[in-house]
Design brief:
globular, about 15% strand, 32 helices, six-stranded parallel sheet, binds adenosine-5'-triphosphate, alpha/beta
Length: about 750
């Protein structure tokens, strides 16, 4: 064995000892959590009172959470080490761990002390002399990568043990698994800037395909939860993704970073109780996504606040209660003028109308009993002198009593309901979209015909912002819940005190994983355990502490209104690429989309290095990008040496053979077949696996493949994709990490001329 090999083996032994010790600490922490859980349940059925049961649930839920966190970080627990010029060595991992003396033995990657690991560069190493990456297979150290910043200051034995194949390149060469992995060991400096950017304000991250926008955004979520746990445990973090496929693709990243409490949703899922997956045809998507739709919905609500053509007349008690047309209009105007949401203002309208009806009935009654009916006019005049004030004959009580009696009559209710109905957002939007007549009346210049559809049609993603808008304008009659909220406020103060005690008694306070206020928040009145994520996802009016929007270029102006409502403090991370916009209602520029909400108050970071796609494929993609916009430049690939991208003659029937060949080429990795919308069903029928991300081969439309990647990509029907848009073709050809094949029945589209062709 050479001196160098000797040194490397020695270094691996040293690191193995450290890693073994760290896993021992992890096991110990797990055993403690399990034990604590056992003790909680050990208290068993003996807990008789509500408080005891609540305590048990709280404690159990927290220990489960702790266990989930500890299990999530098993893979690659420790991945880095830094040595500084003073001889201090620090190990960096997915979570922080301490020894029995409470000394830190592993630093959480998000802690300030771990920062040099990510930001040191040969040109600016700070105090570091070396950065080391540790590669583990399960709990065994199988390799090391060193970057030396100051050889002079390293000891002789350390110099002998230097090892080095760039960790990043090793990570990038790995076969894909169908799911996104974290990159905590190899975060690059420009990504680190994004990840650790301030919580406050809006950050826009613009970058071409494969520049690590998604991965950086998810690490940012984990970082913010770590650095601002107090705020974010209570308010929660929301990640908005373009479709459910994408959310499945990224769902394992945050748990692997020890975070299990982030809410993930598509725009179609942001309205509780509705789960919209269907997309609108492009023409409808454009109209529904137009910011002017907010005004359209508002008009639709106003149209439901009616006055009768003539006087309002309701048959009551064999007679007629009447309110003059002008009075109805005045009552409606007054109810509108209070500027409350429709369902709350309705209360005012109904109350006043009932009083008008009551007054009319009492007047009729009075009239029938009037003295004039029984006495001569002179006698009445004499009486009037003696009993002034006959103009105001009814007391408040009399009116109120009569109004209440009227409200119990179905015919009265029905008449008032017709004038100012209580509305749900679902009813309003459904009735609006299925009524050409209403649409024509309220849609102004918009091409409303594109939106018309039957009342029974399922909700589309484009409907969700309309429902949300309607919910804002309609509101809920929440007087009862406000009283309840006041009571809950008092109960809450007690709950917080109590939660503090629970944290101390379960040892969680010491570990700092939770704050008492957040714990108190998690439990509703009857003690059922609710995480912040559960509560936030179920509450339309929830104000998140931070919102991350990925593939943000796809959101329409109306969808942005929904997102902005979820984060009134405007603490946002907006991640995307305006060159990849697929939705006809999506963004062409960030300024255009965000200015209405952020008015200059946003900062932008650009990611310029493509970690996914090798140079050879990006050269093809660059031509497609120029067809999108000649001024746009693709990101620079960090890797060279992929196979030459190919064009092959054939249609959908060729796909199974081609896919088999690709599978042989890539071995363990994944093949993605990306098709035009037109041929998708045909191709999907030919290939087993469909859209299951865990299958070795998946078949997706361009919309579905957004944000995903595969070792080998087969693009089917490039002409059809190009007809959809050049942006779609750009997305399709930038999904590959190693191999790209384009299947084309005859002439290759001009933008793909660079492909090596067998046509
Ligand atoms: N620092 C890194 N270390 C290792 N791999 C990385 C790093 N940064 C990015 N990658 C890898 O590059 C690939 C692309 O990353 P990601 O999907 O986040 O890019 P993106 O900018 O969101 O792309 P798109 O615009 O196509 O959605 C992923 O496989 C990711 O793991």
């Amino acid at each position: 064995m050479s001196i160098r090999q000797d040194g490397v083996a020695e270094a691996i032994r040293t690191e193995q000892a450290r890693v073994t010790m760290l896993y021992d600490r992890l096991d110990l922490a797990r055993r403690r959590a399990e034990q604590a859980l056992g003790e909680v349940f050990g208290r068993g059925g003996a807990v008789a009172n509500v408080q005891g049961r609540v305590e048990r649930e709280v404690a159990a839920a927290e220990q489960w959470r702790r266990l989930a966190q500890l299990s999530g970080v098993e893979r690659g627990l420790c991945f880095g080490r830094i040595d500084d010029a003073d001889g201090v060595t620090t190990y960096i991992g997915r979570i922080g761990l301490r020894d029995d003396e409470h000394e830190s033995v592993l630093i959480d990657w998000r802690a300030p002390a771990a920062r040099p690991f990510y930001v040191a560069t040969p040109g600016d190493p700070g105090t570091l002399v070396r950065r080391r990456h540790l590669h583990l297979r399960e709990r065994t150290v199988i390799g090391l990568d060193d970057e030396v910043f100051d050889l002079e200051r390293m000891s002789e034995s350390d110099r002998r043990s230097l090892v080095g194949e760039a960790a990043l390149m090793a990570a990038l060469r790995r076969g894909r698994t169908g799911r996104m992995s974290d990159v905590v060991a190899t975060i690059q400096t420009e990504q680190d800037r994004v990840i650790r950017s301030d919580l406050q304000g809006a950050l826009v991250v613009q970058g071409g395909p494969g520049t690590g926008k998604t991965v950086a955004a998810l690490h940012r979520a984990a970082y913010l939860l770590y650095a601002h746990r107090d705020t974010l445990e209570r308010r929660g973090v929301l990640v908005v993704g373009p479709n459910t496929m994408f959310l499945r693709y990224i769902e394992q990243v945050l748990p692997a970073l020890g975070e299990t409490q982030v809410v993930m949703a598509t725009v179609g899922e942001l309205y509780p109780g509705v789960r919209a997956v269907a997309a609108d045809p492009p023409a409808a998507a454009v109209v529904k996504g137009d910011a002017r739709m907010a005004g359209v919905v508002a008009q639709a609500v106003r149209r439901r606040q009616r006055v009768p053509e003539g006087d309002l007349e309701i048959e009551v008690d064999g007679g007629v209660a009447r309110v003059a047309h002008e009075t109805c209009a005045r009552v409606r105007d007054r109810a509108r003028a209070v500027r409350l949401p429709h369902n709350m203002a309705r209360k005012l309208f109904v109350t006043e109308m009932l009083r008008e009806l009551a007054r009319d009935l009492l007047v009729s009654l009075d009239d029938s009993l009037a003295l004039e009916n029984f006495l001569p006019a002179e006698a009445v005049a004499a009486l009037e002198k003696e009993l002034p004030g006959r103009q105001e004959p009814y007391t408040e009580q009399e009116l109120a009593y009569e109004a209440e009696r009227l409200w119990d009559l179905p015919e009265v209710r029905a008449a008032l309901e017709a004038l100012w109905p209580e509305l749900t957002p679902q009813r309003l939007v459904s009735e609006l979209l299925s009524s050409p007549e209403t649409l024509a009346a309220v849609a102004g210049d918009l091409d409303w015909r594109a939106m018309v559809r039957p009342a029974s049609a399922p909700w589309t993603v484009g409907d969700v912002p309309l429902l949300d808008e309607a919910a804002e304008l309609l509101g809920e009659d929440d007087s009862a819940s406000r009283v309840a909220a006041r009571r809950a406020g008092e109960a809450r103060r007690e709950a917080e005190l109590y939660a503090g005690e629970v944290l101390v008694s379960t040892g969680l306070a010491e570990e700092g994983v939770m704050v008492a206020s957040a714990l108190a928040d998690r439990h509703d009145d009857d003690g059922a355990a609710l995480t912040t994520a559960d509560r936030a996802a179920a509450d339309r009016t929830w104000a998140y502490g931070h919102v991350i929007v990925d593939e943000a270029q796809e959101l329409s102006p109306m969808a942005w209104r929904v997102v902005m409502r979820r984060v009134p403090a405007l603490s946002l991370t907006v991640v995307g690429d305006v060159a990849q916009t697929g939705s006809a209602a999506g963004a062409r520029s960030w300024a255009e989309m965000l200015e209405p909400y952020l008015a200059g108050r946003w900062r932008e970071e650009r990611l310029l290095v493509n970690y996914r796609t090798p140079v050879e494929i990006m050269e093809v993609a660059a031509d497609v990008l120029h067809a999108v916009d000649p001024l746009l430049e693709p990101p620079e690939s960090v890797r060279r040496g992929g196979a030459a991208p190919l064009a092959v003659r054939g249609g959908p029937e060729q796909v199974p053979l081609l896919v088999e060949a690709e599978r042989r080429e890539i071995g363990e990795g994944r093949v993605g077949v990306v098709t035009s919308d037109a041929v998708h069903t045909r191709v999907a029928a030919l290939v087993p696996g469909g859209d299951d991300l865990d299958a070795p081969v998946v078949v997706l439309t361009v919309t579905q493949c957004k944000g995903l990647e595969f070792d080998s990509v087969v693009v089917v029907d490039p002409e059809g994709i190009l007809r959809q848009s050049a942006r779609d073709l750009y997305v399709a050809v930038t999904r590959a990490t190693r191999r790209l094949t384009v299947l084309c029945p005859d002439r290759l589209p001009e933008v793909l001329r660079r492909l090596k062709s067998t046509l």
